[in-house]
Amino acid sequence: MKLASFLAGDRASYGIVENADIIDSGGELEGRFPDLKSVISAGALDAVRAVKTTAARLPIDSVTFTPVIGNPDKIFCIGHNYETHRQETGRDKTEFPSIFTRFADSQVGHGRPILLPKVSTMLDYEGELAIVIGKAGRKIDEADALGHIAGYSCYNDASVRDWQWHTRQFTPGKNFPGTGAFGPWLVTPDEIPDPADLSVTTRLNGEVMQSQPTADMIFPIPSLIAYISTFTPLAAGDVIVTGTPGGVGAKRQPPVWLKAGDVVEIDIPGVGLLTNTIHAEA
Prior knowledge:
The protein is an alpha+beta fold and 282 residues long. The protein folds into two domains: 2-65, no CATH class; 75-280, Fumarylacetoacetate hydrolase, domain 2, CATH 3.90.850.10. Helices cover 14% and strands 34% of the residues. The protein contains six helices and 19 strands. The strands form three sheets. Strands 1, 2, 3, 4, 5, 6, 7, 8, 11, 12, 14 and 17 form a twelve-stranded mixed β-sheet that branches. A hairpin with a 3-residue loop joins strand 18 (263-268) and strand 19.
């Protein structure tokens, strides 16, 4: 099942994606579940399925996509989680994953602009697989970790590199408004039996810039969930952005920086195609 968050006019909603339509489940359930995060937190996907026959069907091109989970309690991003990216950045091998955080209000949905800040010319793409936690937990065993996932999505962890490189702490360059693209939808685990059997491809204006199987992650998804849940409880709706392959613009010769008008696609077959155009910040 594919679940999207969206705006129908000015009204925020969510629902099931079927072919060229979105079933407006939120229009039927908003009194009980105001958003997709509340559905996941309540374990209420059956309620979403139950209103399929009564909820309005909207043409998919009539809605504005919003971030799959617009209000997560936590967003964890994993740095240097593919060997190709670790090597191109010159980072040392580590025993533990590199983790930084992104703020929820820095996110945008599929089809919405990624913003090039006025204060920088060094905006870069990072195509990644994102997971959404569906079952809360603390100190989760790796063997049980996949059972805590509500679904999978695409993410462009677009990075303002000069601000990222001000110090060795990534936070400033990873949290400019309109730089974390998340979507187009959430695919439930019944459609993704093994998240290590996927591939992440990033295209810039149609040209492949990154492409790598998720099996190449240094720290696989179960180990990320186990590690993160050891130092903090994971809640339903939390997001883990699992790392980007090699091929980022900053490490190309010459560097490739995103500019206004560029179109970036994050393509994960079986999960979705996330597309965003770069706009200069007003």
